[in-house]
Amino acid sequence: MLVRMSITGRFAPSPTGILHLGNLRTALASWLSARKAGGRWIIRMEDVDGPRCRRDLGEAQLRDLERLGLVSDGPVVWQSGRSLLYQEALASLHRARFLYPCACTRKDLQVMASAPHEGDGLRPYPGRCRARAWEGFGRALRFRLPGGTVAWEDRLLGPRTEDPALLTGDPLLFRRDGCFAYHLAVVVDDGAQGVSEVARGADLRPVTATQIRLQEALGLPRPAYAHLGMVLAPDGSRLGKRDGALGVEALAARGVALPDLLGWLGWSLGCQAEARPCGLEELISAFDWSRVPKGDVRLPAAWA
Ligand SMILES: [Zn+2]
Predict the structure, then answer these.
(1) Which residue among 54, 156, 257, 279 has the highest number of C-beta atoms inside a 10 angstrom radius?
(2) 3-class secondary structure, 23
(3) Looking at the domain assignment, is residue 66 inside a domain?
(4) Cα-to-centroid distance, 49 and ligand 1 (Å)
(5) Rounded to an integer, what distance in angstroms lies between the CA atom of residue 254 and that of residue 251?
(6) Same structural domain for residues 76 and 87?
(7) How sure is the predictor about 119, in pLDDT bands with cuts at 50, 70 and 90?
(8) Rounded to an integer, what distance in angstroms lies between the CA atom of residue 285 and that of residue 181?
(9) Which domain does 111 fall in, by range?
(10) What is the pLDDT of residue 114?
(11) Per the domain annotation, does 112 fall within a domain?
(12) Are 39 and 51 part of one and the same domain?
């Protein structure tokens, strides 16, 4: 019998290191939201980004999630095994005249990026190769963004209207080294996996309008979005490289037991009034996007 699921949430880390507290908090938020709605929750490993992605790091991330009780409904999908799907999407975009070859070298891009740019630090691709004639697949390929702003709604940040041309510019979908690029894989897989809710870190908020344009070009439905703040050091500064290693194992070594960790994560997501130790299941009924803090949260001083 086919059961109609209300939502499908997902957590999609890159297996390039351990999952730090910010990742775990995002994973828990997406899991709680899906569970509360009686929906599905899946894990996807975004390992298309070449040699920085390692299978063993991905396996370690899955073990950490499992220790928290976060287990994928259905097999974990690894993007490195899905090239055919991405190739088909590229072919469909090419038929609709959305692709053009980009001949810019890394150095060209650096020179363009060093020009003064206002905004949040992203350097949009200025469209230098837009007029280049098609040279076949196998070249670096960019997506020709249709003009105009994109209006979308964030479960935490509210309604937004953004111009993707000013944020990312035409995104790279296929790289000169033969790898499919992040924007293509994420959009294709969210569509293929029926993902209806994307909860992720606020660092990805500026690429959302671009990904929505890509969904539209591929005829895929738009999921709901929620962008969660970062976990900062106790003094409000960004966590450094050393603090970044603060994962489940490092915390356990500092005497932070799993119920403590879940209690703090649940508190940081507005599920409980104080960071009292708790179990995973008891957080579900208390979870509500309207109670999740919109901004960044600070690490407890005792854990730093
Ligand atoms: Zn170019």
Answers:
(1) 156
(2) helix
(3) yes
(4) 20
(5) 5
(6) no
(7) very low
(8) 38
(9) 82-185
(10) 66
(11) yes
(12) yes
Query: For 160-200, how does the pLDDT look when each residue is reduced to its tens digit (9 = 90+)?
Result: 999 999 999 999 999 998 999 999 999 999 999 999 999 99
Among the three residues 168, 185, 202, which one is the final residue of a domain in this structure? Answer: 185
Burial readout 34-58 (b: 16 or more C-beta within 10 A, e: otherwise): bbbbebbbbbbbbbbbeeebeeebb
Domain with residue 163: its CATH number is 3.40.50.620
- CA of residue 174 to ligand 1 center, whole Å: 12
Cα(14) to centroid of ligand 1, in Å?
Answer: 26
Structure confidence at residue 238 (pLDDT): 81
Whether residues 254 and 298 share a domain: the answer is yes
Place of tokens 């088909």: 88
In a domain, 210, yes or no: no
Q: What length is written for the chain?
A: 304
Tell me, in angstroms, the distance from the centre of ligand 1 to residue 284's CA.
Answer: 47
For the whole model, what pTM was predicted? 0.93
Cβ contacts of 291 within 8 Å, gap of 6 or more: 269, 270, 271
Per residue in 207-258, pLDDT (tens digit) is 999 999 999 999 999 999 999 999 998 888 887 666 656 889 889 988 999 9
Ligand 1 centroid to 52 CA: how many Å? Answer: 24
pLDDT at 1: 47
Q: How far, in Å, is the centroid of ligand 1 from the Cα of 185? A: 20
Compute the distance from residue 258 Cα to the ligand 1 centre, in Å.
48
Let me know whether 250 and 160 are in one domain.
no
Q: Are residues 87 and 156 in the same domain?
A: yes
**Distance, CA of 199 to CA of 26 (rounded, Å):** 7
**183 C-alpha to center of ligand 1: Å?**
17
Distance 132 CA to ligand 1 centre (A): 9
Residue 303's pLDDT is what?
Answer: 86
